Each structure stands twice: as structure tokens, then as C-alpha cells.
């Protein structure tokens, strides 16, 4: 600000009585304090409270993710990697089912044509089933030709009837 703009305000200030100066100065300090509180202090405190609530939740999620990394590495290492060439389609399906935790629900695996299989699973986790099917496609070039998936009363549990085809079909 230039001196020419300040001069009228100073002249007004000088024209006030000492008691009026005290009143105007006190009001100015009060207004300044309210502005500092509303524009700086209160938002900082709100953000701090939000961070104090969010950090423990994020830490829990980090711990969970770290435990999932070891499980993912274990599953990757346990999956058969040579596809249908080692022991045929039926044995590959059974080996892969063991690695992905759906072996207990595997009720029937039977041949279907030259390079196909009919598979029946009961009471398996839907997430495990999807992971297993993705592995079959990725590792063994096995595609799902037909699938019927029925939900069960327990959350996330399904029965499935599948027709799978190897890459040679």
C-alpha cells in the first residue's frame, strides 16, 4: 500500500478520542482473532481429526495387504506351470484345483470329447473358483465352454457345473 492510501486512515485514527481508539483497536484485534480462527485454526483441527481417524484404518489395510502378498506368492508358486502337456487335461485340472483350494469341493471330473472335461464342484468359495478358472486359462490354456453356477445359503459359497476345453480342441 502506498502512503497516500494510508494517510486518510491515519487522519481518521488521529481524529478519534483515546477511548474511541481503544474501542476500535479492540474490535480490530477481535475481528483479526476470529478470522485467524475460522480461516486457519479450525480447518487445521478438522483435518487433523480426520487424519487421526484415517491413519489407523489405513494401517490395518496395509497389514492385511502384506498378509495377502504372502498368500498370493504361495498360490503362484503352487500352481502348475506347464499346462495340459504334463499328464493331460484331467490331471492338470485336479492339480490346479488342489493349488487353488477347490479340491475339497471337486465332486466329479470326467472326460468330455477329445480334449474336454466335465467338472462338478459343490460348496466352494466363489472367489476361489474364479481364481482357479483364471489360472486354468492362463497356465493351461483351458477355456470355459459352459458354466452353471448356483449360489448356496452361505455367503460366497457356490455349486458349479463346468464344461472345460483344452487348447487342442
Automatic annotation (TrEMBL):
GO terms for biological process: protein secretion by the type II secretion system. Inner membrane component of the type II secretion system required for the energy-dependent secretion of extracellular factors such as proteases and toxins from the periplasm. Pfam families: T2SSM. Signal peptide: none annotated. GO terms for cellular component: plasma membrane; type II protein secretion system complex. The chain crosses the membrane at residues 22-42. Keywords: Cell inner membrane, Cell membrane, Membrane, Protein transport, Transmembrane, Transmembrane helix, Transport. Belongs to the GSP M family. It is found in: Cell inner membrane. Gene3D superfamilies: General secretion pathway protein M, EpsM. It comes from Sulfurifustis variabilis. This is Type II secretion system protein M. It is a single-pass membrane protein.
Amino acid at each position: 500500500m502506498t502512503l497516500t492510501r494510508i494517510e486518510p486512515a491515519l487522519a481518521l485514527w488521529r481524529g478519534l478520542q483515546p477511548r474511541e481508539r481503544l474501542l476500535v483497536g479492540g474490535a480490530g484485534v477481535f475481528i483479526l482473532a476470529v478470522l485467524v480462527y475460522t480461516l486457519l485454526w479450525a480447518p487445521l483441527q478438522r483435518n487433523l481429526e480426520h487424519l487421526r481417524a484415517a491413519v489407523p484404518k489405513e494401517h490395518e489395510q496395509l497389514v492385511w495387504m502384506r498378509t495377502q502378498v504372502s498368500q498370493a506368492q504361495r498360490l503362484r508358486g503352487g500352481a502348475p506351470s506347464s499346462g495340459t502337456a504334463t499328464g493331460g487335461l484331467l490331471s492338470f485340472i485336479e492339480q490346479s484345483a488342489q493349488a487353488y483350494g477347490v479340491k475339497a469341493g471337486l465332486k466329479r471330473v470326467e472326460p468330455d470329447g477329445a480334449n474336454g472335461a466335465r467338472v462338478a464342484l459343490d460348496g466352494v468359495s466363489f472367489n476361489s473358483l474364479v481364481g482357479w478358472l483364471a489360472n486354468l486359462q492362463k497356465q493351461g490354456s483351458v477355456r470355459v465352454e459352459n458354466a452353471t453356477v448356483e449360489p448356496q445359503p452361505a455367503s460366497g459359497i457356490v455349486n458349479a457345473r463346468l464344461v472345460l476345453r483344452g487348447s487342442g480342441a
